[in-house]
Design a protein that fits this description.
It contains 12 helices and 15 strands. It is an alpha+beta fold. Helix 1 runs antiparallel to helix 12, helix 2 packs parallel to helix 6 and helix 2 packs across helix 7.
Protein backbone atom coordinates (compact mmCIF):
# COMPACT_ATOMS: atom_id res chain seq x y z
CA UNK A 1 0.00 0.00 0.00
CA UNK A 2 1.23 3.47 -0.88
CA UNK A 3 1.82 5.11 2.46
CA UNK A 4 3.92 7.95 3.81
CA UNK A 5 6.18 6.55 6.51
CA UNK A 6 5.91 9.75 8.58
CA UNK A 7 2.11 9.53 8.69
CA UNK A 8 2.20 5.82 9.48
CA UNK A 9 4.73 6.26 12.28
CA UNK A 10 2.80 9.11 13.88
CA UNK A 11 -0.57 7.33 13.77
CA UNK A 12 1.02 4.06 14.90
CA UNK A 13 2.49 5.89 17.87
CA UNK A 14 -0.89 7.34 18.86
CA UNK A 15 -2.52 3.91 18.70
CA UNK A 16 0.33 2.07 20.42
CA UNK A 17 0.43 4.60 23.26
CA UNK A 18 -3.31 4.27 23.92
CA UNK A 19 -3.10 0.47 24.00
CA UNK A 20 0.10 0.35 26.08
CA UNK A 21 -1.42 2.75 28.61
CA UNK A 22 -4.54 0.55 28.90
CA UNK A 23 -6.72 3.37 27.58
CA UNK A 24 -7.88 1.27 24.62
CA UNK A 25 -8.40 -2.47 24.28
CA UNK A 26 -8.65 -2.46 20.49
CA UNK A 27 -9.26 -0.24 17.48
CA UNK A 28 -9.58 -0.06 13.72
CA UNK A 29 -8.35 3.20 12.16
CA UNK A 30 -8.75 4.13 8.49
CA UNK A 31 -7.58 7.40 6.91
CA UNK A 32 -8.37 8.51 3.35
CA UNK A 33 -7.12 11.58 1.53
CA UNK A 34 -8.60 12.68 -1.77
CA UNK A 35 -10.32 9.32 -2.10
CA UNK A 36 -7.20 7.22 -1.52
CA UNK A 37 -6.74 5.14 1.62
CA UNK A 38 -3.42 6.33 3.02
CA UNK A 39 -3.54 4.48 6.35
CA UNK A 40 -5.38 1.50 7.79
CA UNK A 41 -4.67 -0.62 10.83
CA UNK A 42 -6.36 -3.00 13.23
CA UNK A 43 -4.65 -3.06 16.63
CA UNK A 44 -5.16 -4.53 20.07
CA UNK A 45 -7.85 -7.06 20.91
CA UNK A 46 -11.33 -7.58 19.55
CA UNK A 47 -11.96 -9.89 22.53
CA UNK A 48 -9.25 -9.56 25.16
CA UNK A 49 -10.45 -12.42 27.35
CA UNK A 50 -10.53 -14.83 24.42
CA UNK A 51 -7.17 -13.58 23.14
CA UNK A 52 -8.78 -12.64 19.82
CA UNK A 53 -6.80 -9.91 18.08
CA UNK A 54 -8.59 -7.03 16.37
CA UNK A 55 -9.50 -7.55 12.72
CA UNK A 56 -9.99 -4.88 10.04
CA UNK A 57 -13.48 -6.23 9.32
CA UNK A 58 -14.54 -6.23 12.98
CA UNK A 59 -18.13 -5.14 13.58
CA UNK A 60 -18.73 -2.52 16.27
CA UNK A 61 -21.82 -1.25 18.05
CA UNK A 62 -21.93 2.18 16.44
CA UNK A 63 -23.97 4.11 19.02
CA UNK A 64 -24.20 7.72 17.73
CA UNK A 65 -22.51 6.98 14.42
CA UNK A 66 -26.04 5.82 13.67
CA UNK A 67 -27.20 9.45 13.55
CA UNK A 68 -25.56 10.46 10.24
CA UNK A 69 -27.12 7.44 8.51
CA UNK A 70 -30.60 8.26 9.78
CA UNK A 71 -30.11 11.96 9.02
CA UNK A 72 -29.17 11.01 5.45
CA UNK A 73 -32.28 8.84 5.13
CA UNK A 74 -34.43 11.68 6.45
CA UNK A 75 -32.93 14.15 3.98
CA UNK A 76 -33.55 11.71 1.15
CA UNK A 77 -37.21 11.71 2.19
CA UNK A 78 -37.10 15.51 2.04
CA UNK A 79 -35.74 15.32 -1.50
CA UNK A 80 -38.53 12.91 -2.46
CA UNK A 81 -41.19 15.13 -0.91
CA UNK A 82 -42.23 12.48 1.59
CA UNK A 83 -41.57 14.80 4.57
CA UNK A 84 -40.69 18.47 5.02
CA UNK A 85 -38.36 19.92 7.63
CA UNK A 86 -40.87 22.54 8.76
CA UNK A 87 -43.55 19.94 9.45
CA UNK A 88 -44.55 19.38 13.09
CA UNK A 89 -43.84 16.00 14.60
CA UNK A 90 -47.56 15.67 15.30
CA UNK A 91 -48.18 15.53 11.54
CA UNK A 92 -46.81 11.99 11.76
CA UNK A 93 -46.94 11.16 15.49
CA UNK A 94 -50.13 12.82 16.77
CA UNK A 95 -49.72 11.46 20.29
CA UNK A 96 -46.18 12.78 20.80
CA UNK A 97 -46.78 16.15 22.48
CA UNK A 98 -44.33 16.72 25.36
CA UNK A 99 -45.03 19.76 27.51
CA UNK A 100 -43.02 22.62 28.90
CA UNK A 101 -42.85 23.20 32.62
CA UNK A 102 -45.86 25.53 32.42
CA UNK A 103 -48.01 22.79 30.91
CA UNK A 104 -48.12 24.21 27.37
CA UNK A 105 -47.44 21.81 24.51
CA UNK A 106 -45.53 23.58 21.72
CA UNK A 107 -45.04 22.08 18.28
CA UNK A 108 -41.68 20.44 17.55
CA UNK A 109 -40.56 20.46 13.91
CA UNK A 110 -38.55 17.83 12.07
CA UNK A 111 -35.77 20.42 11.62
CA UNK A 112 -35.59 20.79 15.39
CA UNK A 113 -35.26 17.02 15.83
CA UNK A 114 -32.36 16.93 13.36
CA UNK A 115 -30.62 19.99 14.80
CA UNK A 116 -31.17 18.99 18.46
CA UNK A 117 -33.09 22.18 19.24
CA UNK A 118 -36.34 20.40 20.17
CA UNK A 119 -36.08 20.72 23.96
CA UNK A 120 -35.78 16.94 24.33
CA UNK A 121 -32.77 15.44 26.11
CA UNK A 122 -30.87 12.27 26.90
CA UNK A 123 -31.05 10.32 30.13
CA UNK A 124 -27.27 10.05 30.29
CA UNK A 125 -26.94 13.83 30.52
CA UNK A 126 -29.35 14.02 33.45
CA UNK A 127 -28.37 13.69 37.09
CA UNK A 128 -29.59 10.59 38.92
CA UNK A 129 -33.15 11.11 40.15
CA UNK A 130 -34.24 13.25 37.20
CA UNK A 131 -37.54 12.81 35.39
CA UNK A 132 -35.75 10.86 32.67
CA UNK A 133 -34.59 8.39 35.31
CA UNK A 134 -37.97 8.24 37.03
CA UNK A 135 -39.68 7.46 33.71
CA UNK A 136 -36.96 4.90 32.84
CA UNK A 137 -36.39 6.48 29.42
CA UNK A 138 -33.91 4.53 27.29
CA UNK A 139 -31.17 6.29 25.32
CA UNK A 140 -31.33 3.50 22.75
CA UNK A 141 -28.37 1.69 24.30
CA UNK A 142 -30.00 -0.35 27.06
CA UNK A 143 -33.23 -2.23 27.88
CA UNK A 144 -33.04 -5.03 25.28
CA UNK A 145 -36.47 -5.82 23.86
CA UNK A 146 -37.97 -2.39 24.62
CA UNK A 147 -40.47 -1.23 21.98
CA UNK A 148 -40.19 2.18 20.33
CA UNK A 149 -43.80 3.12 21.08
CA UNK A 150 -43.22 2.54 24.77
CA UNK A 151 -40.02 4.57 24.90
CA UNK A 152 -41.69 7.43 23.03
CA UNK A 153 -44.58 7.29 25.47
CA UNK A 154 -42.13 7.69 28.36
CA UNK A 155 -40.22 10.43 26.56
CA UNK A 156 -43.43 12.30 25.83
CA UNK A 157 -44.17 12.49 29.55
CA UNK A 158 -40.86 14.22 30.35
CA UNK A 159 -40.94 18.03 30.36
CA UNK A 160 -39.15 19.87 27.57
CA UNK A 161 -35.99 21.65 28.74
CA UNK A 162 -36.86 24.81 26.79
CA UNK A 163 -39.26 26.04 24.08
CA UNK A 164 -38.35 24.28 20.81
CA UNK A 165 -35.99 26.29 18.63
CA UNK A 166 -34.59 28.48 21.41
CA UNK A 167 -31.51 26.48 22.49
CA UNK A 168 -29.38 23.42 21.70
CA UNK A 169 -29.36 20.19 23.68
CA UNK A 170 -28.18 16.78 22.50
CA UNK A 171 -31.18 14.52 22.55
CA UNK A 172 -33.26 11.52 21.59
CA UNK A 173 -34.57 13.57 18.67
CA UNK A 174 -33.20 11.08 16.11
CA UNK A 175 -35.14 8.27 17.80
CA UNK A 176 -38.29 10.35 17.40
CA UNK A 177 -37.31 11.13 13.81
CA UNK A 178 -36.92 7.41 13.15
CA UNK A 179 -40.53 6.91 14.23
CA UNK A 180 -41.57 9.77 11.92
CA UNK A 181 -39.83 8.12 8.96
CA UNK A 182 -41.54 4.82 9.74
CA UNK A 183 -44.94 6.52 9.84
CA UNK A 184 -44.27 8.44 6.63
CA UNK A 185 -43.08 5.40 4.67
CA UNK A 186 -45.12 2.63 6.32
CA UNK A 187 -41.83 0.75 6.59
CA UNK A 188 -39.45 -0.02 9.42
CA UNK A 189 -36.44 2.22 10.00
CA UNK A 190 -34.02 -0.62 9.18
CA UNK A 191 -35.78 -1.09 5.83
CA UNK A 192 -35.65 2.65 5.14
CA UNK A 193 -31.93 3.00 5.91
CA UNK A 194 -31.15 -0.12 3.89
CA UNK A 195 -33.11 1.06 0.85
CA UNK A 196 -31.95 4.67 0.79
CA UNK A 197 -28.45 4.64 2.32
CA UNK A 198 -26.56 1.42 2.94
CA UNK A 199 -27.66 -0.65 -0.07
CA UNK A 200 -26.98 2.10 -2.65
CA UNK A 201 -23.51 2.49 -1.13
CA UNK A 202 -22.86 -1.26 -1.11
CA UNK A 203 -22.42 -1.44 2.66
CA UNK A 204 -22.77 -5.11 3.49
CA UNK A 205 -21.98 -5.03 7.22
CA UNK A 206 -23.71 -1.90 8.50
CA UNK A 207 -27.30 -1.85 9.72
CA UNK A 208 -29.55 -2.45 12.70
CA UNK A 209 -28.55 -6.11 13.02
CA UNK A 210 -25.14 -7.76 13.34
CA UNK A 211 -24.45 -9.54 10.07
CA UNK A 212 -21.81 -11.85 11.58
CA UNK A 213 -21.81 -12.18 15.39
CA UNK A 214 -18.41 -13.88 15.22
CA UNK A 215 -16.93 -10.54 14.13
CA UNK A 216 -18.68 -8.43 16.78
CA UNK A 217 -16.08 -6.74 18.98
CA UNK A 218 -16.50 -7.10 22.72
CA UNK A 219 -17.38 -3.88 24.56
CA UNK A 220 -15.25 -2.40 27.34
CA UNK A 221 -15.43 0.59 29.66
CA UNK A 222 -12.51 2.44 31.14
CA UNK A 223 -11.76 1.56 34.75
CA UNK A 224 -8.86 2.04 37.16
CA UNK A 225 -5.90 -0.02 35.98
CA UNK A 226 -7.45 -1.50 32.86
CA UNK A 227 -10.73 -1.34 30.90
CA UNK A 228 -13.41 -3.71 32.15
CA UNK A 229 -15.54 -5.85 29.86
CA UNK A 230 -19.20 -4.81 29.85
CA UNK A 231 -21.71 -7.49 30.78
CA UNK A 232 -25.43 -7.33 31.38
CA UNK A 233 -26.45 -3.71 31.97
CA UNK A 234 -23.80 -1.35 33.24
CA UNK A 235 -23.89 2.38 34.02
CA UNK A 236 -20.65 4.15 33.11
CA UNK A 237 -20.20 7.69 34.51
CA UNK A 238 -19.92 10.46 31.90
CA UNK A 239 -19.86 14.16 32.77
CA UNK A 240 -22.67 14.86 35.25
CA UNK A 241 -24.55 11.64 34.49
CA UNK A 242 -23.94 8.08 33.34
CA UNK A 243 -24.49 6.10 30.14
CA UNK A 244 -26.41 2.86 30.59
CA UNK A 245 -25.08 0.16 28.26
CA UNK A 246 -26.52 -3.25 27.50
CA UNK A 247 -24.15 -4.68 24.87
CA UNK A 248 -26.48 -7.59 24.06
CA UNK A 249 -29.22 -5.17 23.01
CA UNK A 250 -28.01 -5.25 19.41
CA UNK A 251 -28.51 -9.06 19.37
CA UNK A 252 -32.13 -8.92 20.56
CA UNK A 253 -34.48 -8.68 17.54
CA UNK A 254 -37.20 -7.19 19.76
CA UNK A 255 -35.09 -4.13 20.60
CA UNK A 256 -36.42 -1.04 18.87
CA UNK A 257 -34.35 0.40 16.02
CA UNK A 258 -32.87 3.45 17.72
CA UNK A 259 -32.36 6.22 15.16
CA UNK A 260 -29.75 7.76 17.40
CA UNK A 261 -27.76 4.74 18.56
CA UNK A 262 -29.03 1.42 17.20
CA UNK A 263 -26.74 0.41 14.34
CA UNK A 264 -23.65 -1.79 14.06
CA UNK A 265 -21.01 -1.73 11.36
CA UNK A 266 -17.40 -1.72 10.20
CA UNK A 267 -14.79 0.97 9.74
CA UNK A 268 -14.59 0.38 5.98
CA UNK A 269 -18.35 0.82 5.61
CA UNK A 270 -18.28 4.04 7.63
CA UNK A 271 -15.46 5.37 5.45
CA UNK A 272 -17.47 4.68 2.28
CA UNK A 273 -20.38 6.64 3.73
CA UNK A 274 -18.16 9.55 4.80
CA UNK A 275 -16.50 9.70 1.40
CA UNK A 276 -19.92 9.85 -0.25
CA UNK A 277 -20.79 12.83 1.93
CA UNK A 278 -17.43 14.51 1.27
CA UNK A 279 -17.92 14.09 -2.47
CA UNK A 280 -21.39 15.64 -2.52
CA UNK A 281 -23.69 12.79 -1.57
CA UNK A 282 -23.94 10.60 -4.69
CA UNK A 283 -25.47 8.08 -5.02
CA UNK A 284 -27.66 8.68 -1.96
CA UNK A 285 -28.20 12.45 -1.85
CA UNK A 286 -28.04 15.53 -4.06
CA UNK A 287 -25.11 17.88 -3.56
CA UNK A 288 -27.40 20.74 -2.57
CA UNK A 289 -28.92 18.54 0.15
CA UNK A 290 -25.49 17.64 1.53
CA UNK A 291 -24.59 21.35 1.53
CA UNK A 292 -27.56 22.00 3.81
CA UNK A 293 -26.54 19.15 6.11
CA UNK A 294 -22.99 20.50 6.30
CA UNK A 295 -24.19 24.00 7.25
CA UNK A 296 -24.10 25.06 10.90
CA UNK A 297 -27.78 25.12 11.84
CA UNK A 298 -27.44 26.38 15.42
CA UNK A 299 -24.41 28.66 15.76
CA UNK A 300 -22.10 29.05 18.77
CA UNK A 301 -24.84 28.25 21.31
CA UNK A 302 -24.16 24.58 20.62
CA UNK A 303 -20.41 24.30 21.32
CA UNK A 304 -21.03 20.64 20.61
CA UNK A 305 -17.36 19.67 20.64
CA UNK A 306 -16.27 22.67 22.70
CA UNK A 307 -15.80 26.30 21.62
CA UNK A 308 -15.74 26.87 17.89
CA UNK A 309 -18.11 24.02 16.99
CA UNK A 310 -21.73 24.27 15.85
CA UNK A 311 -24.08 21.58 14.59
CA UNK A 312 -25.54 20.63 11.22
CA UNK A 313 -27.76 17.66 10.39
CA UNK A 314 -26.11 14.53 11.80
CA UNK A 315 -22.79 15.97 12.97
CA UNK A 316 -20.88 18.84 14.51
CA UNK A 317 -19.60 21.56 12.16
CA UNK A 318 -16.33 23.40 12.82
CA UNK A 319 -16.88 27.15 12.51
CA UNK A 320 -13.73 28.53 14.17
CA UNK A 321 -10.59 26.34 14.14
CA UNK A 322 -8.57 28.81 16.20
CA UNK A 323 -11.19 29.01 18.93
CA UNK A 324 -11.40 25.21 18.87
CA UNK A 325 -7.58 24.87 18.95
CA UNK A 326 -7.61 22.31 16.17
CA UNK A 327 -5.60 21.86 12.96
CA UNK A 328 -8.78 20.85 11.15
CA UNK A 329 -10.12 23.27 8.55
CA UNK A 330 -13.23 25.38 8.89
CA UNK A 331 -16.21 23.31 7.74
CA UNK A 332 -14.87 20.05 9.16
CA UNK A 333 -17.63 17.62 10.14
CA UNK A 334 -17.10 15.47 13.21
CA UNK A 335 -18.93 13.20 15.62
CA UNK A 336 -18.51 9.91 17.44
CA UNK A 337 -20.21 7.33 19.59
CA UNK A 338 -20.26 6.47 23.28
CA UNK A 339 -19.09 2.90 22.70
CA UNK A 340 -15.75 4.52 21.86
CA UNK A 341 -15.71 5.97 18.34
CA UNK A 342 -14.76 9.13 16.50
CA UNK A 343 -14.78 10.22 12.86
CA UNK A 344 -14.31 13.40 10.89
CA UNK A 345 -14.44 14.78 7.35
CA UNK A 346 -12.20 17.74 6.50
CA UNK A 347 -13.41 18.88 3.05
CA UNK A 348 -10.67 21.51 2.63
CA UNK A 349 -7.90 18.97 3.14
CA UNK A 350 -9.88 16.17 1.45
CA UNK A 351 -9.60 13.98 4.53
CA UNK A 352 -11.97 11.32 5.85
CA UNK A 353 -10.99 9.59 9.09
CA UNK A 354 -12.65 6.73 10.98
CA UNK A 355 -11.51 5.41 14.34
CA UNK A 356 -13.72 2.70 15.80
CA UNK A 357 -12.69 1.32 19.19
CA UNK A 358 -14.23 -1.04 21.71
CA UNK A 359 -13.46 1.16 24.72
CA UNK A 360 -15.80 3.75 26.23
CA UNK A 361 -15.13 6.59 26.54
CA UNK A 362 -11.48 6.89 25.51
CA UNK A 363 -12.25 6.30 21.85
CA UNK A 364 -14.81 9.12 21.84
CA UNK A 365 -13.54 11.91 24.11
CA UNK A 366 -10.22 10.68 25.50
CA UNK A 367 -6.62 11.63 24.83
CA UNK A 368 -6.58 9.17 21.93
CA UNK A 369 -8.96 11.35 19.89
CA UNK A 370 -6.68 14.40 19.94
CA UNK A 371 -3.51 12.31 19.61
CA UNK A 372 -4.89 10.67 16.48
CA UNK A 373 -6.02 13.98 14.99
CA UNK A 374 -2.65 15.62 15.60
CA UNK A 375 -0.80 12.61 14.21
CA UNK A 376 -2.81 12.80 10.99
CA UNK A 377 -2.15 16.52 10.56
CA UNK A 378 1.48 16.30 11.56
CA UNK A 379 0.81 18.70 14.44
CA UNK A 380 -1.08 21.45 12.63
CA UNK A 381 0.47 21.44 9.23
CA UNK A 382 4.15 20.53 9.40
CA UNK A 383 5.98 19.58 6.16
CA UNK A 384 5.50 15.92 7.14
CA UNK A 385 1.69 16.08 7.04
CA UNK A 386 -0.53 13.81 4.98
CA UNK A 387 0.95 14.05 1.47
CA UNK A 388 1.37 17.84 1.77
CA UNK A 389 1.03 20.59 4.39
CA UNK A 390 -2.59 21.02 5.46
CA UNK A 391 -4.52 24.24 5.80
CA UNK A 392 -6.48 24.86 8.98
CA UNK A 393 -8.64 27.70 7.66
CA UNK A 394 -10.11 30.45 9.79
Amino acid sequence: MSLHNSLASRVDAAIDSAIADNRLVGTVVVVARNGETVYRRAAGFMDREAGQVMQEDAIFRLSSITKPFVAAAAMRFVELGVIALDQPVTRWLPDFRPALGDGSRPEITLHQLLAHTSGLGYRFSEAEGSTYHRLDISDGLDQPGLALDENLRRLGEAPLAYPPGTAWRYSLGLDVLGAVLEAAASKSLPEIVLEHVTEPLGLSDTGFVVTDPERLAAAYAQAPGSPERMAGTVAVPLWQGAVRFAPDRILNPESYASGGAGMAGTADDILIFLEAIRNGGAPILKSETVAIMMRDQVGPQAATQGPGWGFGYGWAVLSDPRLASTPQAKGTLQWGGVYGHTWFIDPVNQLSVVALTNTAFEGMVGQFVNDLRDAIYGHAGSPNSVEQPVYSGS
